[in-house]
Amino acid sequence: MKVVPSRSNEWVRSVTPQKPASAIIEIDRVSQVFQTSTRKEHLALSEISLTIEEGAFVSILGPSGCGKSTLLYIVGGFVSPTSGAAKIKGQAITGPGLDRGPVFQEFALFPWKTVLGNVMYGPRQQGVRAIEAEAQSRALIEMVGLKGYENFYPKELSGGMKQRVALARTLAYHPEVLLMDEPFGALDAHTRTRLQNDLLNIWERDRKTVLFVTHSVDEAVFLSDKVVMMSKSPGRIRQVIDIDLPRPRRRNELLLDPRYQKYVVDIERMFDESDETGSPS
Amino acid sequence: MMSPATLTRRIAPVLACVGLLAVWQVASLALKNDSFPTAIEAIRAIPDILGDKEALINILASLRRMAIGFGVAVLFSIPLGLLMGRSRAVAAFFNPLLMIIYPVPKAALMPIIMLWLGVGDVTKTLVIFLGVSLPVIYHSFEGAKAVEEKMLWSGAAMGLSPLQRLVRIVLPAALPEILTGCRTGLVLALITMITSEMIARQSGAGNILFNALDMGQYDTVFAMIIIVGAMGIGLDAIFERVRARLVRWSEPQFDMPLSFS
Description:
The complex is a heterodimer of chains A (about 280) and B (about 260). Chain A is about 35% helix and about 25% strand. Chain A has eight helices and eleven strands. Chain B is mainly alpha-helical and about 260 residues long. Helix content of chain B is about 80%, strand content about 0%. The mean pLDDT of chain B is about 90.
């Protein structure tokens, strides 16, 4: 296991031999200050620097309140950082864009649209003809395992199904980067496991860049190429860990793999050792 | 065959109306007051009113003013309410103005408006407009405010401009709440329609009602009350059909029983 310490917030990636490093997202000394209700200033993120390569599955792992979602919102362009800057493919991020597709814990589906209507929304907005958009969307709905539910409304679906729709809706407009904000956080353990498996299967087909926020160590290690460990108050990067496990990953094999177990145990220990926060999840 | 639950639901409103008329009949027979005709006498007077061409023209004129006042108010109020719900600056500007107008009975403004605009259609329609606007603005405002931010973010990520987000996300997401406001607005439209015609006697359903009152034709007075009430039930039923169709996606799927037996 390679543990790459964050050197004074200026983290430099160790190049993996099989893939040449090509940064898609660069986060440069980003800080975020919030006004609390008592008019005090709360430093949510402090001088975060991080580079994410194209095609990498990167998890941001940390306890609640460490600003990990805020960091994701900054990359999404939904929140502007107080200082510092984030870039995508060398361009400064000034707002949301089609190149970055968010998937939220709250699903954020359009309740007045059916499953098909939700998935078609993005392509239609891009001017894809209705017939084509529908064909593509039906294929995506099938891919996320919801064939037969095309004409259901979101209120008629379970949480796990809603998140599948949300994933299909985002994939439908082909963003280059998926921004996933604790997407399985609101789901029960069983559903969560199934969605993790399915997400990996889908991801391993086309290897989009994924930035995945979670507070679950297992989830981060199982899914990621790289885990960014954060600590809170103020939110800082503690450590970036490369997860050197073979792909395609299968849960039943991985859970028995001593390397997987060591990553999980080591990361949990590192969180335990920190006096500030304790273990996430 | 209808299920017992459906049957009960269908019969309930009929039962309510018949019950009300029965109580009225008994009460007026017991009171024996000249100015309180029985339900049957009032119902008998209805065909005379509806058969009279002059009266029909009056009632239709009322409905026309109401439709225009309601329609213009809805078209004006929904965009304003939505903008207020999504922009703190717009809300901060309009909220105090609306709070000043809200408690004032709209009919109380009539004499002033009559001085400016006369006793004609414009004055009455304007009063209906004022009566309808406030609840529709308020509910649109609340509905727009409650729209989940992440839903708007999702739209922004798909490339929707701010205006598109307002029209294509905030409007549909807030629609159930907006329609609640419109329903209140519809009832208020009916009320302001009658009161405006009470103050500016010239034509309309309210005019027939209050002229009959002046002349002591109490059966006509009560017949008009029934007609206005029926108009209320009818308009509300039409509105409810439209509403149910528009927001089917948000309705609860099951009946909500108080007990489980």
